[in-house]
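User: I'm putting together notes for a lab meeting next week and I want to include a structural view of one of the chains we've been expressing. I don't have a solved structure, so I'd like a prediction I can at least talk through. The sequence is below, exactly as it appears in our construct file.
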Amino acid sequence: MDTTGAAPPANAIQLFNGKDLANWTTREGGAPEWTVEEDVIHVVPRAGDIVTKDSFTDCYLHIEFRCPNMPDASGQQKGNSGIFLQGLYEIQVLDSYGINIPGTGDCGAFYEQFAPLVNACRPPMTWQAYDITFRSPRFDDSGAVSEHARATIVQNGLIVQNNVQLLGPTGSASKMEVVNSGPLRLQDHKDLVCFRNIWAIPLPLEGSHTYEPG
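Assistant: Thanks for the context. Below is the predicted structure for the 214-residue chain, given as structure tokens.
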């Protein structure tokens, strides 16, 4: 089911209020320089990434993006940005429209780890939706990672990642420490990508171990 333009449910945390970036900072904790116009966040090239003030463990995330039309560009230079879960795991945002067999750097990929199962991209200048179910890493009693993060991604109504277990942080975050809770980070890759309608629903880490019939 295509969820582009979907309204957040009552139990969702609205990460973008459509008016300003009050819920966001730079990676250094300062005020973001990205702009907001008519319910849309616009990347300001070379202004740096932005991160939410909220942190998340297991969650369901909805986010919509729009890539610019860059007909003379190709590969990683064509409408590039990224959505980093917990600030560590990059879901690629890119104009990959029309690519027959997408790879680990294309839209819908976990960057350099898992290619999307199918190419679900719409043309540039068209709004697209990611619906992401994220399961945070688990740690043992000593604090070591016992199970890496998992995620399922639906792009424009098509499953592009099916419960993949990540190998650890991706790409530029690969040397960062794994955490059990972290913010959402949006990447400034110097392209005029836009975002809107960003909300999350925190999920319990596990269900009940008991059953008492009524």
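A couple of points you could mention at the meeting. The chain has a mean pLDDT of 96. The CA atoms of residues 119 and 202 lie 28 Å apart.

User: Perfect, that's what I needed.
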